[in-house]
Amino acid sequence: MLNNLIFPAHEQHHNNSFLIAACVMGQSNMAAGATVGSNHNSRTNDNEVVAGRGFWPGLCTSIKHSSVFASYTLLAKADYPAELNIPLPFSLVSNNAKEDRLEVTPAFWWCRNMYALARNNWKFKTRDKRITKTQNIEFDTFAPDSMEEVIRARKLLEIWTAKAWYRKENKPYDNLSDKQLRAKGSELLDGDSKTVDDLEILGENMEKSNRCVLIRRVWRAYHAYGDMLLHYAMTNAMDYLDANPGETLTSLSALLKSRRQREWINLGGQLMMTTEFDRIRADIRSGKLASWKDIHKRYNDLWRRYPVDKLRHAYLSLCYLLRVEQMDAEAWQRAIAEEMRIQQYICDEVFLTRRKDYENPFRQATYRNAEEMTAAIGPLEKNSFVRQIQAETEKNLKRLEDLRSRI
User: Is the pLDDT at 193 greater than 80, yes or no?
Assistant: First the structure.
């Protein structure tokens, strides 16, 4: 492995090959036998692979350079024949060799494996055993970088859904702007799921090939992305208001009124606005930051500011999602009700996705009987993480109810 940047909380198993430069932004798991990149193409030097947080290629997966992956991309085991650009976070990507097409299921983690997704936040923080934490690291799955990817992904799904509908209706759309396509897509995605499920929705510019890229279960993914955004926003708002008993929605809105910062960079595990990163680079060039000590001080100064920057981004993301300029009492009550639903959904899905391991007949086959399996792995009802989530959910539902009067 040469010329690669590997960010914190990275797991890499045996017999992996990094044939080119790569930037893997942490909280990732490189399964055994993964081959990242490919050899020279005889015309130019090798390029690189850039993978957002939570990157997870399956066993013996092979990908080509140059490729880019959004946060929490899961690659099903395959030899991917061409370069990839996957802008949809939390997706499952698979190579359907029989149909000769790439298939992408957005928001897969949220919809199908909530146990693993919820456990990520807990496990990375718990495993961080550093005595002196000199490096600042964002471990939260739902953070400004991943949530901006979610916002961009929703826009893409709106455009691609609209195009699919026009194709099915044999209506031209080449003269329509992205804004017009997004409006039609939003109308469809906010409507009946069957209308969208009956469409063949194709991704664009996701693979360097002439194959089609099928986007699967788009209606569900679109709404899952919306739930992620709302959960991110309300969790941050709830934590802030709990820590500041004198604050209300009105004072919070006044504090955070601004324009949403849409560009964030992961700098070795620390998230910051791209504007701040550009300022660091400019100050290094000018000599204002003349030593590593100066640079690290700037990092720490920005980290102290980060909770407010993140809170502001979360609040403005909520305004964007609810299509309001500023949160008022009606929007606040709606957001609280939705977050209560989402909290219960997370709790239920953590239990249900963990239960799959107990109901899987192939897992059961390695034990003589159910009693032996229970003795080895413990009863589902006593799973420590499931019980932890259930307790946190009960607590959070009460916290949310208490926020109804904090107008």
Answer: yes
